[in-house]
Design a protein that fits this description.
The complex is a heterodimer of chains A (about 325) and B (about 110). Chain A has about 325 residues and is mainly α. Chain A contains 13 helices and 2 strands. Classes of the chains: A mainly alpha (about 325), B alpha+beta (about 110). At the A-B interface, α4, α7 and α10 of A face α1 and β5 of B.
């Protein structure tokens, strides 16, 4: 029996574009997708599949990184040491999620520095939700409950995405997300058991975050341009509208526990459908925010740019130190 | 974080004590498509190609894997196991990083 073996060991990282592929390579890709298995970085894949993943995964990574800002802003103003520690842990998690996702994207052959440049130059997209302001402490509750709640509904199916490194990163992220949603819910629960002013603050925050969190699932199915192909490739498992419905059905009983209402007069149980009906969302607003004209787009990007520039000396110092110690090791070896 | 002492590691066999010693390689096996490569053990081999081949022969005799990675052992930087208490101290006492810490929402569905 002959075994074909590479003369030189294979590198682990991916090639950026493997071209059209041989018949055999294309057949393998199709069969892996058909069997609902995972594509790994060194497998041949259609360049459109690679491009789609780089776009989606890097947008996801950017969202985690930009998503630190609305909450990081409240760390110094959290109402207790306990809440401060929790908020720091959560923001730290978001940074970690960004790093998992950038690393997973790098296995597709696009470097993190390239992705980072796209973000700070304003050429990359990230979730529109993070362009809304977080003016009160109750926003920390609403973000955890609604924004992280929507993220979980979106992300759980991604744990089965067809690209191995993405799916594995999502498994790790979903495990960590569970505390984010709960701590947000508890912030609101405590406020709703507090003074009337605290209750009003909680209600106000939910009023502002409800519709934007529903829009996190993306445009309605009829207008979602990339959806069909992503579903055919097993990157996406459920349509935007399906996930949005699942989220609303999950939220309404939770809101009842809180004693909070949603700013949607059309929100009502539909016995026939077995789901909650809800009103039309303002997709013009969504388009505006996505196009960069939301309430905080400029501020978020500028903050990210400043952080990158302010951190330049740290990166330079670390690289200089590494060079210096490497030089010493060589000298030591020669001596 | 102590770098493995052999920082002048070269990726080939070296002369030592009068006979040739092959470098040590750490072996990682992916048991199925979709799973991570997981550390399986180590072996000696004169170069990377032989290390991959030997790893296949040594660690996948019962169909344990669909992919093998090898990494020169001397290139692995590890934390100091004796200092693990202090080294991982910062993660201790932070139960609030787990969802189970938040008990007030107990019984609420999908949280």
């Amino acid at each position: 029996m002959t075994v074909s073996e590479p003369r030189t060991p294979h590198a682990v990282s991916a090639v950026t574009d493997a071209g059209e592929g041989t018949d055999e390579e294309r057949a393998l890709f199709e069969s892996v997708i058909a069997d609902d298995k995972r594509i790994e970085p060194r497998d041949w894949m259609p360049s459109a599949y690679r491009r789609t993943l780089v776009r989606q995964m890097s947008q996801h990574a950017h969202s985690e990184i930009i998503g630190m800002q609305p909450e990081a802003n409240w760390i110094t103003r959290a109402p207790s040491l306990k809440r401060k520690a929790i908020l720091m842990a959560k923001v730290q998690d978001e940074a970690g999620h960004g790093l998992y996702l950038y690393s997973a994207t790098e296995t597709l052959g696009t470097g993190r520095d390239v992705l980072n440049d796209q973000l700070i130059q304003g050429k990359a997209r990230y979730s529109s939700i993070f362009n809304y302001p977080a003016p009160t402490w109750a926003d920390m509750g609403a973000i955890g409950w609604l924004v992280d709640g929507a993220a979980i509904v979106n992300q759980v199916p991604l744990c089965r995405a067809s690209f191995g490194p993405y799916a594995r990163a999502m498994v790790r992220i979903c495990k960590e997300e569970s505390f984010h949603q709960r701590q947000g819910f508890e912030i609101l629960l405590e406020l709703m058991q507090g003074t009337q002013a605290q209750q009003e603050m909680a209600q106000d925050a939910v009023n502002r975050w409800f519709a934007p969190s529903l829009m996190m699932f993306g445009p309605p199915d009829a207008e979602s341009t990339n959806s069909a192909q992503s579903m055919a490739w097993n990157i996406k498992r459920f349509s935007n509208d399906e996930l949005r419905q699942r989220f609303v059905d999950m939220l309404v009983p939770q809101a009842e526990v809180l004693g909070i209402t949603f700013p949607d007069p059309e929100l009502a149980w539909n016995e026939e459908r077995g789901h909650y009906d809800f009103g039309e969302l303002d997709w013009d607003e969504f388009a505006e925010v996505l196009a960069g004209r939301g309430p905080c787009n400029a501020q978020r990007l500028q903050r990210r740019r400043d952080a990158h520039n302010d951190g330049a000396w740290v990166r330079e110092a670390a690289a200089a130190y590494a060079r210096k110690t490497a030089g010493r090791a060589v000298e030591g070896a020669a001596a | 974080m102590a770098k493995a002492e052999n920082s002048k590691f070269e990726n080939r066999a070296t002369e030592a004590a009068g006979h040739e010693t092959w470098p040590l390689w750490e072996v990682f096996i992916r048991s199925a498509r979709g799973l991570s490569h997981v550390h399986a053990g180590s072996l000696h081999a004169p170069d990377a190609t032989m290390a991959v081949r030997n790893a296949r022969d040594l660690y996948t005799r019962r169909m344990e894997g669909v992919s093998v990675w090898v990494v020169p052992s001397a290139e692995v930087t590890a934390s100091d196991p004796d200092a693990k208490g202090a080294y991982f101290e910062s993660a201790q006492g932070k139960e609030y990083r787990h969802a189970s810490y938040y008990t007030k929402s107990e019984g609420v569905k999908h949280l």
